[in-house]
Amino acid sequence: MNKLILMGRLTRDPEIRYGGPNNTCIARFSLAVDRRYKREDGPAADFFNCTAFGRTGEFIEKYLQKGTKVVLDGEMQNNNYQNRDGQMVYGFQVIVNNIEFAESKKAAEERQEESTRQQDIGADGFAPVPDEMQEELPFN
């Protein structure tokens, strides 16, 4: 049996293309999945390359973007090839069978707003002062 279930966030916007005899939608994306136990010296997440076809790919194209939290079920597939030097390169990808949202739209919007606010605050915890106001500051 080859079945896995993953929950995580898209690390980038999906790459979409159409191909094959029926002009089928093919969606490719990467999913970051948090590890249950975090090590101080290692990564806190694993990253999975995922591919979806047909109607599932169309759903991904229409509704998913970087940062969206999803739950999916799929199958692990080898993605091995021989490189130009003649060496075998071993890899794998997840073929997505089903995918669903794992957070509400409201929670996603709140997360995006918080992320935007964090980007506006500098490393010292204060918002940056525009250059034209620098002269007016009393402590310059």
UniProtKB/TrEMBL annotation:
Its keywords, alphabetically, are:
DNA-binding
Show the GO cellular component annotation of the record. Answer: nucleoid
Q: Which SUPFAM superfamilies match?
A: Nucleic acid-binding proteins (SSF50249)
* CDD domains attached to this UniProt entry: SSB_OBF
Work out whether the entry's keyword set contains DNA-binding: yes
Q: Where is the composition biased (Basic and acidic residues)?
A: 105-117
Q: Which GO terms describe its biological process?
A: DNA replication
GO molecular function terms listed in the Swiss-Prot or TrEMBL record: single-stranded DNA binding
Q: Quote the Pfam families the UniProt record gives.
A: SSB
Q: Give the residue ranges for region: Disordered.
A: 105-140
- Subunit structure of this chain's protein: Homotetramer.
Q: Which NCBIfam families match?
A: ssb
Protein name per its UniProtKB record: Single-stranded DNA-binding protein
Q: Which organism is it from?
A: Shuttleworthella satelles DSM 14600
